[in-house]
Amino acid sequence: MSLGCPKNLVDSEVMMGLLARAGAEITHDASDADVIVVNTCSFIESAQQESVNTILEMARHKTEGRAQKLVVAGCLVERYRSDIQKDIPEVDAVVGTGELEAILSAAGMTPRPAVPESAPFVILNGRASDGPAEGDARAAQGRFSRTEWEGAVADLPNYLYDETTPRLLARPKHSAYIKIAEGCDHPCTFCIIPQLRGQFRSRRFESVVTEAEQLVAAGTRELTLIGQDTTCYGEDLNLKDGLAILLERLAQIEDVRWVRFLYAYPNKVTTRLLEAIASHEKICSYMDVPLQHASPSVLKSMRRGAGAEIFLKSIEKMRRIVPDITLRTTFIVGFPGETERDFEELCDFVRAAEFDWLGAFGYSDQEGAKAFALDAKVPAREIEQRRKKLMQIQKQISRKKKRSLVGKEFDLLLEGPSEETELLWEGRTVMHAPEIDGTVFVNDAPAGTNKMRFSEMAW
User: What is the largest distance, in Å, between two alpha-carbon atoms of the chain?
Assistant: First the structure.
């Protein structure tokens, strides 16, 4: 059971690969499992609650069903390791974000030698470099102190899967994520990711390319690069414009059709990166830049910087260099100290920017984050009202943008029958990132697609 973001999904795929290589038979039916693994999320309160509810639900398979072991993994372990083991006695073992290889001992299994690269659906990945000197310096300054996390491991997570690590893909093989970096060095006051995932560290350039080539050889046609901040890729390896260079290299893989990346930091979107997107047909004209807010005062409190005026200039530059670019962003409403004026500034910015995709989240107080200690907390009801208003503004923008697409033709990744009805098929254009931006419904699929397996795709 994998909860949370795509980065967590890759961790789950690595753990499944390790277990499969050791001889385990993987099943997605908890009632049929001897060992149940729940990979948890702990980013916001609702995610924590979902994780706890899932653990308790899976615990019943141990007390009432055939399961013999229950293992809890992921971000929730990094926050509440001792509490999980103390308060949920059905849990037999915990595996933190930096301990993925411990899944074998947690499940009571013995490691086996690596399988050949040709084994079905097992993809071998690349080795990480040593940690960045900058991250070590920040740790010495206390930014990554873990003393407030009761029961947490003594060291920050520093694991990053390498080329000897098997990975069992959980999604249809035509589309796969590649984690190019782990951890984060940004000091955002609303976020606890550095405590959960450790310092920023990039995988070696060659390892990412090798993994991409192996995925494509196994049938993958869409590669999505992920990390806490993909635009910082390579900085700890002294690689300038590392993401742009990596994208250009991946675009040279013959059978890949789309290469995209997620989670760009606003001030890391360089001219070089935009020119790389504009110059290569295989690199998706798609940018996911979580701006978080538009009011300079709120952004300063978030320790993000900039503001609406600077963001609008950046967006103009993106659209000038990549005219057909699709822009996605996310915002946090109700951050401590956010005034009505701050919120209206955000609304005005959204109207002016006209994003293609936008997500709005209510501020979630997280113990351990710097914002937890801030005063002037916005009431929960007001936060939700603001969130709804912002999304209503975006709904009008989205309707206008979708109408402008009528009559145009697009390449479509046709993924299979719709979950809504067998009378429709579902697909995605270059404007739709997997699992994020929705789908395109098709009522007249190309001849022969009715015989496709769901794990296959057509263009």
Answer: 62
Whose CA is closest to 233, among 209, 215, 214? 209
> The pTM is what?
0.87
- Judged by DSSP in three states, 156 sits in coil
Compute the distance between CA of residue 434 and CA of residue 252 in angstroms, rounded to an integer.
22
Residue 182 one-letter amino acid:
E
| DSSP 8-state class, residue 377 | P
Kindly list the strands in the beta sheet with 69-74, ordered across the sheet, starting from the edge strand earlier in the chain.
Answer: 35-40, 69-74, 93-95
Mean pLDDT score, 269-292: 97
Helix (H) or strand (E) holding 73: strand 69-74
Q: 238 in the Ramachandran plot: left (φ > 0), alpha (ψ -120 to 50) or beta?
A: left
CA atoms within 13 A on the CB side of 305: 6
pLDDT given at position 109: 84
Among 309, 391, 296, 288, residue whose Cα is nearest residue 335: 296
pLDDT of residue 46: 84
In this structure, what DSSP letter does residue 445 have? P
Tokens of 176: 């796969």
pLDDT band at 121 (very low <50, low <70, confident <90, very high): very low
HSE-CB at 180 with a 13 A cutoff on CA atoms is 32
pLDDT tens sequence across 374-392: 999 999 999 999 999 999 9
Asked whether the beta carbons of 271 and 240 are under 8 A apart, the reply is no
The count of residues in the chain is: 459
Give residue 113's pLDDT: 58
